[in-house]
Amino acid sequence: METHKQLSIGLFGFGVVGEGLYRVLQQTPSLKAEIKKVCIKNPEKKRNAPAELFTTHKEDLLFDENINVIVEVIDDANAAFEIITTALRNGKAVVSASKKMIAEHLPEILQLQQETGLPFLCESAACASIPVIRNLEEYYDNDLLHSIKAIVNGSTNFILTKMFEDKLDFSEALLLAQQLGFAESNPKLDVEGYDAVNKWSILLNHAYGIVQHPSNILFSGIQNIQLSDAIVAKEKQFEIKLVAQAKKLQDGKVAAFVLPQFVKHDDHLAFVKNEYNGVVIESGFADKQFFYGKGAGSFPTASAVLSDLSALRYNYRYEYKKLYHHTPHELHYDFHVKAYISFNDWKNVPKDKFEWIEEWHAGEERNYIIGVIHVKELYQKNWWKENGTSLILAPDPIIENVDIIKLKKRSLELAGIV
Ligand code: HSE
Questions:
Q1: What is the 155 CA–ligand 1 centroid distance (Å)?
Q2: Can you list the domains of the chain with their CATH numbers?
């Protein structure tokens, strides 16, 4: 029987995730993984671990021949990229939780893995405790994966739940998310959707072989959602969620975005509350599958790092099957979406850009429309994020054949039916 590899770990970062991993490893001696050194930025800070474990010199970890795995859980994307690059070039396997760094450097990280043949595992970088990356890598063949939609950011889901169910105001809900260790050190990354789109760019790679910088994916956070939007959602029996979505369209290209969305009460994602994340996969023969688990927090995130460490004992590495063994998919930029837009002033909304408008509402303080618009109108200009304007997608928002629907509408009009 093959004996498992002994793991000697150099850990970068001892914050929420790093300390979580330290505690989790203490409780799993069977893993035979030992943290040899921890590199930290601030030596003055009090740590709940023996002082001799810590250093401020990255070389103590990166050039120690006895360390065979570097675990990097810091939140400085540039420093993280330098660490993982040096580690791989020095023959060390890497486990990383740095979503921003991975999403922004995907091509270089792929190249480095090819050059060195070493594993780079990052299960904790998307949906924390849910094993979504390895599932997408191993289980779903390219052709079978019709769509994925997911809640990938715990903090924003927590804030939406606390605001609209527990009636906290935004700043109270955010503070709580920070205190519980869910939010990024710069919470703008969560609130404005950057963290979610970074995770989505990583997942698009493992799901469809797409390698795209997050700035090429349409996204927003929950920063513009207003109480009046929640009231409309309630009237229509919807929930508001920040949903990351990808759908293979008829020509094989993939429509993908991260935007607030109205979710029906019987949708799996409506069930996802607080810091939980959820992923709904639609595949060829299995129909729908739903993955659910904690998407932020110390132990849930550390559990995914632990699972990566365990996989390293068997020399597991991602094969990137969709990228290297199939024809990788491309992102689609030519489709329409149905969206609800609420706003203070009609002049801030380019009504003539909509294919058609299904609902108009003019209130004393807030107005809204629900209509169909081409995504290029959202990519080109940010009018839908500015001047207090809020965009929330309708359930099942993607419309592929807008011309056919227009023709149908026209013939119904001519027949006097509508
Ligand atoms: N800030 C992130 C979130 C942490 O709220 O989802 C987990 O990646």
A1: 6
A2: 7-127 (3.40.50.720), 139-295 (3.30.360.10), 336-414 (3.30.70)
